[in-house]
């Protein structure tokens, strides 16, 4: 009797990931869209104060103490996800900072910090402490590294500097056009969407909502990175590669 119960429990445990990996891509294919032509509007702190936790305030204070100035705050809303962010700029380092708060359906609110730097070849080096890996595959427009166990913002910025010395040492960083607000971020969304299109993951048409729909291949790619066991594998890969480069240096 006990053996039967254990087998049933094991079957239930395995059934959910199996279902998500088989049926999930078709659900994503029909429902998920990728932001392409985005227009961010500045928002007041009160608009997302109820969603964002004390962790958001902690990162905000820490970034400001490092000499970053606020550019503005905005949000983006999808079918099952509300994302809020505050953007910062350090003119001396030529590094952009961001604190992100993501409220997704049936998931705890996720808050993280990231630092980005753009170079003369239009590439971007990005370092964050996001606990979840990105849903997109590696793209030529941005090279991303995760250090989810690092809550020290100064340490995270140091990792960005070290990775830059190893990967972008011959590249000159460019200034962020602070006076244009979120325009540069909006341009990046378009470039990111175009890079996904080039990989055959999106359809070329941009809808009235400013989004592109996924191809079936794109849905498979996104789903694999979002559900187990692919999420755990992709998370391990994206976390390990940054530390590996630092150790090799």
In short:
With 249 residues, the chain is of the alpha+beta class. The chain has helices spanning 2-22, 24-31, 54-65, 153-167, 183-198, 216-226, 230-248; strands spanning 33-35, 69-77, 81-90, 95-104, 110-118, 124-128, 142-146, 211-213. Helix 6 packs across helix 7.
Description:
The protein has 249 residues and is an alpha+beta fold. Helices cover 41% and strands 22% of the residues. The chain has seven helices and eight strands, in the order H-H-E-H-E-E-E-E-E-E-H-H-E-H-H. It has helices at residues 2-22, 24-31, 54-65, 153-167, 183-198, 216-226, 230-248, and strands at 33-35, 69-77, 81-90, 95-104, 110-118, 124-128, 142-146, 211-213. A six-stranded mixed β-sheet has the order 2-3-4-5-6-7. A two-stranded antiparallel ribbon has the order 1-8. The longest helix has 21 residues, at 2-22.
